[in-house]
Each structure stands twice: as C-alpha cells, then as structure tokens.
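Notebook B, p. 112. Complex prediction, attempt 2.
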Amino acid sequence: MISYQLPTVAPRPALAPKTLYSVASGDLRLTANLKTWSMQQEVERRFAAAAAAFGWTVTRAHQEDPATGHGFIDSQRKGMDVLGAIPAEAPLVVIEAVWQYSHHVLAGLRDHRGPILLAANFAGDFPGLVGMANLHASLTKAGIAHSTIWSEDFTDEWFTEKLNEWLTTGQIVHDTSHVRDLPSLPDSPERELGVALAAELAAKKAILAVFDEGCMGMYNAIIDDELLNPAGIYKERLSQSALVAEMNKVSDAEAAAVRAWLDEAGMTFHVDNDGDWTECLTDEQLTSQFKMYIAALRIADDFGADAVGIQYQQGLKDMVPASDLAEGLLNDPHRPPVTSRDGARVLYEGKALPHFNEVDEGVAVDALVTNRVWTAMGLDPSTTLHDLRWGDQWGDDFVWVLEISGSVPAAHLGGYAHAHSYRQSGYYFPLGGGTLAGVCKPGEIVWSRVFIADGVLHVDLGRGTSVELPDTEVQRRLNSTNKEWPIMNAVLHGVSRDQMMARHKANHLNVGYAPDAATADAALIAKAAMFEAMGYRVHLAGTVVPELG
Ligand SMILES: C[C@H](O)[C@@H](O)[C@@H](O)C(=O)CO
C-alpha cells in the first residue's frame, strides 16, 4: 500500500493567562520602516503599559530583524508566518504608528480565532491612524470581526475605558449614532437628476482605466467587477509599463509646453537643479511628470476611459518620478491642453479626467459620480481624495487635516497662482517628482466614502466646511504632517473626532466643493439619489440636509 510523506503543521503554542499578543504591520519600503521604527517602539511601549495597568502582559509575536534593523511585518509571507505561529485563540492587537500595508496581515487575521484589536496613535507625523483606517476597511470588506482604538498618548480616560472594555468583553462598541440610512428622498430636481444620471450610467456604461490594480496592500480599495458592473461601471486593466512606453514617445517640446502653461498660470515650482536630486526637485523630474500627464490622457483616450488610476506605489516608483503632479492636473477641468498623437484633437477638452490616487477603486466610483453630478449641476467638478490624516481642536471645532500624499486640483487651492510644487520625500519616493500642493481654499464641501461591507457596496455621505486658519496654525499642521503635501483644514458637520474614527471605512475620503451651503446640500441630495439608483446602500453621516433629517 503506497504511503506518502504527509506534511505536518506545527501545533500553535498554548495561551498563557492574561496574555495578549501584538504584531505591527509596516511598509514594503525599508527606508520608510527604518524612519518610523523608533516611534513604533515608543507607541508599543505605551500600549503595553496601559494593558499592564489591567494586569495583562503583551507578548510581541515577532522581533526586530537584525537583517533589516526594524521590527515591522514588511511582507505578506512574513505576516502569514508570524500570525500562524501564535495561539489561535489569543487576544491579538495590531499596533500601528505608521502607514502600513493591510495585506501583510490579512491572511493571518482571517484565520485568527481570538478577539482582534487594531490600535493606533492619533498623531500627525507618524500616522498610525491612517494605517489603521485602511486595515479597518480591509477587514470590514473581508468580514473579519475586529475592534478599533486610538489615542494620542495611550493614557487618556476614553482610551483606558475602551481598552478595558476590550480586555474584558473581547470587543469595543463605539458611538456611531451620527450615521443613518438614507431616508426616502422627497421628489425634487436633485433627486430626479440623480436617478437620471444613474439610468444613463447603466445604459451607456463607464470605464475606469486602472494602471496596475492594487496599491500598498489596500485590500478594501479593490472592488470586484461583479460588484461594480451592475451599475454600469467596468474596469479597463492596463499596465504601468505601457504608460512608461507612451511617456517615452512624448517629446520634450510637448512637456515644455505643459510647463509653460503652468508658469503662465502662476504655479510655483520649488526647483533646485544644482542641488542633490535625491533631495531636490529638478526640471528633469518635472519634465518626466509632464510626459506622464500627456501619456495618461492619450492612453485614456485610446480606451475611452471616464476615469484613470495610476498605482505608482510600488511598481512605477522605481522607474519614473512621482505620478502626483499628473494626477492633480487631470482632476481639474482647467489644465494644460493635450492633443492626440497626431495633433488633430484636444483630449478631454475643458473637462477633468477624474484620477483615483493609489488606484483606490472606491475613490474611482465616487469621483465618477461626483464628476457627473457636479457637471450636470453646472458646478466645477474638480474633486480629489484626501487622507483622513490627523486633526486637532481649534476653538469650539475639531478641525481635521485632510491631506492627500501628493496633489489636489489647483481649483481646490483657488487656482494655479496658489499652487506650489515641492519634491516628494526621498524615503517614500526615491526618484522624486513634484507635488501639487498648497492650502485648500475655504468653502462648503461634500465628503464621502464608498466601501464594501457584508459583500455589498455602501457609501457614506456628509457635509463639511473647509476652514481658513491663521498661517501659523496652518504651518504647525503642515510641520506636524507632510509639508510637501496639500492640506485641507476641514470641519465635518455633526461628526466628532471619535465618531469619524470609529465609522470611517478607509484611509481616504472624497471631497467636492460647492459655491455655497445650499448648493452643497443640493449636490449631496443628487449624489445620494444617484448612488441609491445605482443600488448602493446609502448612509448619511453627521449633519447634512435639514429636510433629510
Ligand atoms: C507615500 C505614502 O505611501 C502615502 O501614499 C500613504 O501614506 C497614503 O497616502 C495612504 O493613504
């Protein structure tokens, strides 16, 4: 009788009493992990001290790797090995003081049987809250039960009470009373518009051009075609190598024409061609970025795309300077003109070509809907995502720092004369390239997030105000985060800091401006009606349109 060498699976270790295990997911980039490791250790020390106060011991499931010099889980394989070697029933905490890749720990968390807690520092510089927000969204998509907690220093009363709740019950119930399902919409021109736009989308379809799907482990940001297609949205999967090939066909003269247009429009490029290019922005980096802008439009035109997303991190970052400048230009209808290769047509003339940063497909759908609603309402459709990056009290308000990692449409800054381009940081962007940055103008906004939960598509919609703060305060906020990136200081109506942290299903949120509060309210209704007619579960978050309750 034949017998085979059967593989054996090592038994998991036994769980000691009053012991919880901790892991830390990190970046793929060694430079980023080395820059943030000491803060990570400090945050872990503070968390362990808080748990010890309740008589619990935190056992770190993986140690600093002498080969790398840091203690992050920096690959999916490592995550599987680490999480496969701890007691399956252990209370497990994922502690984050950094931006991290959720797929590094997703597999291990999917198999874990014990209670899972995601814990993050609420800090501007090393944004654990951003990393945790993505893991929260990715676990929600995967249907993996977990709790979340955050704190500036892990000693505040709110944090301590919530930690105790988790240690004693295995879960934390947060206040998300600011969220409710969209009530039935009364007839209105806005409802009619939303329904009609959804019908048009279903009939004529729309194409999202994705240059290499999936970015930095953001599992939540990949939406299965079977969820997207029913409303009429289809993906065109393209390759970043094709983008580079097209960039290589763009002439220096064409790139120079883009630069000349931006110079004429008053944009400021903080260039130092004599400095060290690994730290300074150069004209050569900018030329490459303008070629990417032109190439992206030409390929999008080839495929009849309605929106485009460039993964950039991680494949393209070792090939060409950052994609951010091209992204910010594409998101604004007022931008340097680009012709077809034969010069016969101006591509997407007078229109924005919505770009979804980091190929976040939740943002793609949202930007497409915003573009169509705002355009139909005669509003400037310039839109963008931002990281829900950080925030702080200002007077009676909690004012968020919304800060995408690179670029916004110049319209959000009040025009190109207010736009600045700084070199992207070396530890994240080795080949450099400029941002499209500045301080977002004050004004009324509609914010939103498309996400997957329970296997279906949802959207949270809210209203907010981008507020003007004194220069000193704005600079403090930039110095506390990334001063090379654009910043929006925003109050989200009727949502507290902790309610937003508890509910928001992503590191990103979408924003669109409106000229006044009434128009913003109307745009929100039209957007809600369109999403509802597209079959999405629509939720209102915070104080929105009075008549909608
Ligand atoms: C440069 C970094 O990787 C950023 O891209 C990252 O922190 C994010 O923006 C996450 O949303």
